[in-house]
Amino acid sequence: MDTSLVERVEVVKGPNSTLWGVNASGGVINVIPKSPFERKGGFIKLGFGDYNTQNHNLYYSTPIGKGFYLGFSVSRRQSDNSWRRWNKFWTNQITLQPYYMFENGDTWENYISYTKASLQLPGALVVRTSPTPIDQWSEFLRTKGPKNRRPMEAYGEKLGDILL
User: Fold this and answer.
1) Phi, psi (rounded to 5 degrees) for 146
2) 100-159 tens-digit pLDDT
3) Rounded to an integer, what distance in angstroms lies between the CA atom of residue 159 and that of residue 119?
4) Torsion angle of C-alpha atoms 116, 62, 7, 98, degrees rounded to 10
């Protein structure tokens, strides 16, 4: 969901979250979208920043029949982050929001969304570049890996102190 369409985010921790289902006993993050019933018309939002960072949003909502509303959103985000190689991204998103309000006040709300993205983020940070490149995970396994250790000790002694 495009962040320009979010009204609020609710975080429910612990056993109260089972109201959302049996498998939600640890907690639930509930994203509440903005309703086109409350807002008719639209907006255009443009943002620009360092490293060719851009954020473009277009939203429009209108009633198109008795009780039927339609919202439409288009957004693009991009950043070059040229301070590090392979740290660029862009994403395009289109969202269609058909809504219907019944005569008794009940509503049917739906989101149909399409996202296309290109994430050119680094796969592994390099510890050493020559003579043979080594990434961080390979170096971890070579020096502190889980060989002949209990699983908790494989991540270092400090992790056990933090969890206790």
Assistant:
1) -80, 25
2) 999 998 989 888 989 998 876 655 455 555 666 665 566 566 666 555 444 444 444 444
3) 31
4) -60
Residues 89 and 156 in one domain: no
Place of tokens 């985000």: 77
Residue 94 sits in the same domain as residue 153: no
For residues 94 and 56, give the distance between their C-alpha atoms in angstroms, rounded to a whole number. Answer: 12
Q: Hey, what amino acid is at 29?
A: I
- Domain that includes residue 73, residue range: 37-123
Give the number of domains in the chain. 2
Q: Is residue 59 part of a domain?
A: yes
CA-wise closest residue to 85 among 49, 136, 117, 125: 125
Contact by Cβ (8 Å): 68, 98 = yes
Answer whether residue 141 is part of any domain. yes
Of 63, 120, 115, 62, the closest CA to residue 88 belongs to: 120
Whose CA is closest to 72, among 97, 93, 91? 97
Please tell me whether residues 79 and 153 are part of one structural domain: no
